[in-house]
Amino acid sequence: MAAITFTEGTDNIDYSQIIKEDKDNIDILKLSVPESTTININDTITYKQIDTTTLFKGIVQSFEFGNGRKTVVVQDLGSVLLTRNINTVYNSMSPEAIIQDVLTNYAPELTYISTVSSGLTIPTYVAKNKKAWDVVTEMAELLLSSFSTDASGNFNLELEGENLSNFTLDASDGSSILKGSWKQDISQLVNAVTVEGEDRQSFEATPELFSGTGAQTEFVLSEIPIDVKVEYPVGTPVVGYVRGSGSGDYYVDRENKKIVFDSAPASAASNIKVYYNYSIPIAVRRRDFASITTYGQKDKVFRKPYIKTRNDASQYANYVLNRYKTPLLSSTWIIKDQAQLVAFNDWLPNESISVVDSDNGIGTFLVIRKVVRSFPGTTEITVGTPEEDIIFWQKEAQTRIKQLEEKDDNSDLLNEDEYVVNNVKITILTEVTQITKIEKGAAWILDDVVNSEIDSTFKLDGATEVDLL
User: Fold this and answer.
1) Minimal CA–CA distance to 21: which of 136, 202, 205, 146?
2) Phi, psi at residue 427, to the nearest 5°?
3) Are 258 and 221 in contact (CB under 8 A)?
4) How many CB atoms lie within 10 A of CB 452?
5) pLDDT per residue over 189-208, tens digit each?
6) Model's pTM, two decimal places?
7) With 50 as the cut, is the pLDDT of residue 468 above it?
């Protein structure tokens, strides 16, 4: 595998394109060279600007041919993670610590430079026959982060919008111009939101009175009961039991909200009294009527296991409405400023950037989604509305860790080292009819010897007898 360097404007390069995207976590170089140029899969390509500044470094993945030219498709140095397998168990480690361990032990070509500190701990994470890329991606998703690898092999994690770009996009200062128009995406628009917590709040019901008829054994409550206590007659506790187990005076049919007596209570007014608690899901619903009037009602239900109070549910609902009650914005800009063109390496997806477009009444911070540099040609920057809010990222990550632990099945990996002892009876089927038994201590040997015949009992472990049939 060779190491090859190309410089734009020379080496018969008539076209090149570098694509950085925040979602794919991997950058791509497409390089057009003469078809006769010797390049092989897995070669390392360094691509430099005319002033010898390194723009890209990566590993050749594929080729495209046409018109006597060969387009080389190169992925950044992070693509080495796609070729490394992991088979280990991580205990009591943070997501970012697991990533560091993967890089150290499976991809030493990469250097971890991130400052992300989540404060989270994964009790057990099983990486069984997984690609290093999949492990790193899973950990980054837990942190709601993207990662990137630069031309020096530096590996960086970054929360969406956490870092502010050194650049601005301002239609009025001549440094950049809007390409086309602003796009509005209503696919994620939400203006009627319900937020549910997985946990439930428990309430004490007002005691309910029933009148026996002398024949009726079932009495229906207003809510599904928990922690039931029954008095019959009023003031005298009676004994409840679990249906099908034990005995008593009554059992509770929770699904049908019933108290069921073994024997019908006597006929009397209000002679049965039931005390109980019941629970309801933590849930709130919020709507933005101005958005509904403009775009129609767009409902969405969010189930968040970590939400334990109505106040937290209300806070989350308000956050969702504030973020998603209007369409998500996106646009692409063409960079005109020469200094910004030359500083291509400093354009980083996932960073927040100030965007000003007075003609369309826009002045806000958006997130860099995509950076495309073409030679010859331009640098284009695509920006869009932030999709995540770091206010909630830690709680979201804790939920994802729980789901990750439930998903991973440790049994196969743990059983590899188990030693199981069972008593077995062995039947040996063979065409050999004459065999000789040789005993030595607790061991036994069968040997094919002519004119020998046995029908005996052997000991496999010195204690357990196994019949040879």
Assistant:
1) 146
2) -110, 120
3) yes
4) 12
5) 999 999 887 656 677 889 99
6) 0.65
7) no
Q: Which of 172, 120, 167 is closest to 339 using CA atoms? A: 167
Average pLDDT on 163-185 reads 91
N- to C-terminal Cα separation, the chain: 62
- Dmax (CA) for the chain in angstroms is 107
Look up the CATH superfamily of 84-159+392-407.
Baseplate protein-like domains (3.55.50.10)
Residues of the chain with pLDDT > 70, as a percent, come to 81
Residue among 90, 94, 128, 132 at smallest CA distance from 114: 94
- Strands 15-21 and 28-34: what pairing? antiparallel
**Predicted confidence (pLDDT) per residue in 238-290, tens digit:** 999 988 777 899 999 988 899 999 999 999 999 999 999 887 777 889 999 99
C-beta of residue 33 within 8 angstroms of C-beta of residue 11: yes
* Distance separating alpha carbons of residues 466 and 460, to the nearest angstrom: 7
Question: CA-CA distances (angstroms) from residue 55 to 7, 347, 377?
Answer: 9, 11, 15
- Range list of β-strands (E), 54-144: 54-66, 69-76, 85-93, 111-112, 122-131
Is-cis flag, bond preceding 233, omega within 30?
Answer: yes
Say which range, 29-33, 295-299, 377-381, 462-466, has the weakest mean pLDDT.
462-466
- Is the model more confident about 201 or about 88? 88
Count of beta carbons in the 10 Å neighbourhood of residue 307: 25
Q: What does the block give as tokens for 217?
A: 């054994």
Residues 6+ apart with CB under 8 A from 182: 329, 330, 331, 357, 360, 362
pLDDT over 50 (residue 313): yes
Burial class (CB in 10 A: 0-12, 13-18, 19+), 383: buried
In whole angstroms, give the CA distance from residue 450 to residue 445: 16
The whole-angstrom distance between residue 238's C-alpha and the CA centroid of its chain comes to 51
Q: Please give the pLDDT value at position 467.
A: 45
Q: Which sequence spans correspond to the domains of the chain?
A: 3-79, 84-159+392-407, 164-186+327-384, 187-323, 422-469
The dihedral built from the CA positions of residue 254, 257, 262 and 265, taken in this order, carries a sign that is: positive
Q: How many helices (H) and strands (E) does the chain have?
A: 7, 29
The answer to whether the CB of 343 falls within 8 A of the CB of 395 is no
What pLDDT band is residue 434 in, cutting at 50, 70 and 90? Answer: very low
Report the chain's mean pLDDT, rounded to a whole number: 83
